Amino acid sequence: SSLTLLDQCSFKAINICGMVQSEKDDTDWQHTLTTSEDKDHTLVGRCTGRGYFMHLNTTEGSPGQSAVLESRFLYPKRAAKCLQFFYKFDGSQQDKLIIWIKKDDGTGNVRKMVKLQTFYADEEQHWKLATIPFNSQTKFRYAFHGIREDPGNSTGGINIDDVSLTETQCPTGVWQITNFTALSGSTSQGDYISSPLFYNSEGYCFVLRLYPHGVASSSGNYLGIHFALCSSQNDGALEWPAGNRQVTFTVVDQDPDLTQRMSASRVFTTDPDQLSNGQLLWNKPSITGSLDPLYDRHVGPFYGWNSVLHRRELLRRSFLKDDSLIVFATFEVVEDPGSVL
Ligand SMILES: [Ca+2]
Ligand SMILES: [Ca+2]
């Protein structure tokens, strides 16, 4: 497998996978057991009295106080990394979570800090997936740095669970569809949900449509996913038609153990000569497409898979967790177009 798993943690055990609490900060993250109100992401309440997550209480102390949780030392085999974890803010609207890595300075000392990403509290209060790409060729640690900003107005804190670190590229597009059961109930065959806008590494804009009950003409009860290019300010510099690029959709099996996952993936490669209604299918969306008021930009023809996953499979495995469905999408150049034929 091309998946190189460097680290993962569902915080099941008290040793928290060898992670370390900093002693130079103001407080600690708490290894916290699931309750009926606050469920971890690993089991989401499926086993009463089981399932742990890490929690930083932001209701106490003073503004600006922080807690840092560091991974053990990790030793890379290749450069690319993708850190993934679930987080949930249920404290104050001001709370923050910053993700750092601490790299070898070249002499064997792990002390060179790189700030990767900052997450801000929102009103949603459900588990959200973070995917953070970075590179490191030398030994390093990653760290979760939580900051309590407004204890007087906090009703909870910052929570993290189901951390994984792989030596792979992160997916370009990560689409988390929350309240999936209600969405399923209010849609029927032929109805679709529109993704946000995504940009690939080259700067191409793309969007997805997910059909919870399949496309209008399909038989069987499958999830379908279609892909389209959209216009952006990058279009003048990009190659058109956007051929010989691979589109991958993955409906993510959210099993906390990455080695046990059986995600559902579909792949196709864009053919630069393919026609659609007499036009080159993968040409500029401003030529092939029409203005979509949802995005306020041109969206080209949709193309994809009518049957990515049978709906009965949704209820097996861990495709739905905390009532969220997660779709990864990538659109990347095929380095050697000859090799895919
Ligand atoms: Ca857990
Ligand atoms: Ca601490």
What features would you describe in this structure?
With about 350 residues, the chain is mostly beta strands. It folds into 2 domains: about 5-165, Jelly Rolls, CATH 2.60.120; about 175-340, Sandwich (Apoptosis, Tumor Necrosis Factor Receptor Associated Protein 2, Chain A), CATH 2.60.210. It has 3 helices and 25 strands. The strands form 6 sheets. Strands 1, 3, 4, 6, 9 and 11 form a 6-stranded antiparallel sheet that branches. Strand 19 and strand 20 form a beta hairpin. It is globular, with a radius of gyration of 22 Å. The two termini are about 20 Å apart. The protein binds calcium ion (2 copies).
Jot down its keywords.
TRAF-like; 43% strand; binds calcium ion; Jelly Rolls; Meprin A subunit alpha; 341 residues; Apoptosis, Tumor Necrosis Factor Receptor Associated Protein 2, Chain A; 2 domains; mainly beta; 6-stranded antiparallel sheet; 5-stranded antiparallel sheet
Number of helices: 3
Secondary-structure element series = EEEEEEEEEEEEHEEEEEEEEHEEEHEE
- Derived from helix and strand composition plus strand pairing, the structural class reads mainly beta
CATH architecture of the largest domain: Sandwich
In the predicted model, the low-confidence regions spanning at least 5 consecutive residues are none
